[in-house]
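Entry 12.
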Amino acid sequence: MRAMVISGGGSKGAFAGGVAHFLIEEAKKEYDIFVGTSTGSLLISHLALKKIDKIKEIYSSVNQESIFNSCPFVIKHKHGSDFIAINHWNIIKNFIQGKKTFGESENLRELIRNSITHEEFAMLKNGPKDIVVTVSNLSLNQVEYKSINEFDYDEFCDWIWISSNYTPFMSLVRKNGCEYADGGLGTLVPIEEAIKRGATEVDVIVLRTEVSYYNRMPSRNPFELLTSMFSFVLDRIENQNIRIGKMVAGQHDAIINLYYTPAVLTTNSLIFNKEKMTLWWKKGYLYAKNKNIESMPIEPDLQE
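Predicted 3D structure (tokens):
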């Protein structure tokens, strides 16, 4: 059985889409299992349906308004780079309304429902493929994996949304008596889960560079500090997930193919820039193409 695993990474999910685009449409790889975390969970339903153009259009047009109904920051441009500053009014308004997070992402919830139809959900649920999203149960202090086979349309759309909620900047969701948040807080690269579900070969798209190239500028405000701290913690989680995945693969004689980003795409994946994300999709496609060409065996010259 073959699985595709896509890590979390916010706006960098566009790069993962490009990699998956090549693997599915050009390399003609067939996958039995799709497991995603955060932005990965947003991609996998459409990839399983092979509706590449549809999800590409979504990732090429999404912006802050598509995600947030109450955005906790504003994006500023200085010296050719983007950085975030605090949106004091939205944060104060959220706290007055009794919200537990700086921002709210109800618009993303609506986007998910608008992009996955009931008919598409039925095709996936009645089909042979397993679609799994990762969520973090903060109340029980554990990671949970939600398969499309276990839920109806509304519930599964909610689990996709929950998997993508990067708290405390996005919504904290209370469901089944527990508080849930972004799956990446526990498992950013769910290789182990794919193998546990029977995968013998796993294509893993990791939305960071294989070697760290970061040299961050000093934080200019509390939000930049928070995002830097979260990035540091998530990088450590990601490294651990990959190490565990390799160990489990060795125990089960499974093959892992890792696709990293070849360069740093952004230092703040909460900034959704349509032009950049369109470019990242193209870069992901070309990167996967070059990687697969390099790994193909060279045919011997039989001509004398």
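Annotation: Strands lie at 2-6, 33-37, 73-78, 81-86, 130-137, 142-147, 173-175, 178-182, 201-206, 255-260. The longest helix spans residues 222-251.
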